[in-house]
Design goal:
Strand content: 5-15%
Largest sheet: 2 strands, antiparallel
Helix content: 40-55%
Oligomer: single chain
């Protein structure tokens, strides 16, 4: 089922038209922000699904080759009393970070900055 809200935010390009690298990057960022599956997103944007999968695979391969960390070791500080609620931060399709206490926010920010290659403080 296609999300009607996502439909309004669609970035349509004419069919059978070559896309520039900046257009592909924008589409991949839009996909990362969406709640749609790759197949549903490709269908919504009128992109051949196999072509879209190729774009995603090349992006993942180039990110791995560029030295972007795939795993960052961190030390967790002792947390306060366990909380029954938590916040889950999703980065792209494969990274989920669960924050269970306020003590973990600075650590989570540092980890996210490291994963995205940013040095700025939150």
């Amino acid at each position: 089922m296609v999300n009607p809200r996502a439909m309004r935010q669609s970035i349509h390009f004419p069919r059978n038209r070559r896309t520039t690298s900046s257009e592909r990057a924008e589409l991949l960022r839009a996909f990362d922000r969406s709640v749609l599956s790759a197949a549903a997103f490709a269908r919504q944007e009128q992109i051949n699904y196999t072509t879209f999968c190729g774009w995603r695979q090349r992006r993942a391969t180039s990110a791995a080759a560029s030295g972007s960390p795939q795993f960052v070791e961190v030390e967790l500080p002792p947390s306060s009393a366990p909380s029954s609620s938590s916040l889950v931060v999703e980065v792209g399709a494969k990274i989920r970070l669960r924050i269970c206490s306020a003590d973990q926010v600075p650590l989570a920010a540092a980890l996210l900055n490291q994963l995205t290659g940013r040095e700025e403080a939150c």
